[in-house]
What we know:
globular, Aspartate Aminotransferase, domain 1, disordered N terminus, alpha+beta
Amino acid sequence: MRQGNDGGAPVEVPEDIVERIRALCLALPEVTVRVDGSLTRARSTARSFDIRRRSFCLLVAWEDSTGKLVPLLVLRVGPDEREALLSIGYPFLASRAGHDRIVVVLTDETDWEEIRELVTESYRILAPKKLVALLDEHSDVSPYDDPLDPPSLSRHE
Length: 157
């Protein structure tokens, strides 16, 4: 396994964050997970949550120049939403992956209800109309009641 810059433990997304994002994404219709373990000097395993082989949510962590772990979520957004989020600034950053994406830095202050909304909207952007309609039929159902206490999952990577 690759070591962080300090020679310590490998850089990885904390398991509680992985589980929260997994629960949010897998609650959506026909989502699959791809895991990319091709690590770079300071990047963790990447988990891509896909709809029909297209990523709507990418979870990865980087090690910053001070050696601190920085979990990131890359999501699809519409142009107006992207502009609004970027005007807020941190924790929202522009993505180098494209003008239809936003990066969210996940911190101890993360608003998990907002993350749920952003993940769902990202899914809607890529999902076929049939799946969006299915999602709309169940829009009053939350993936779980308390976003700070996700349920144990039966589906794993």
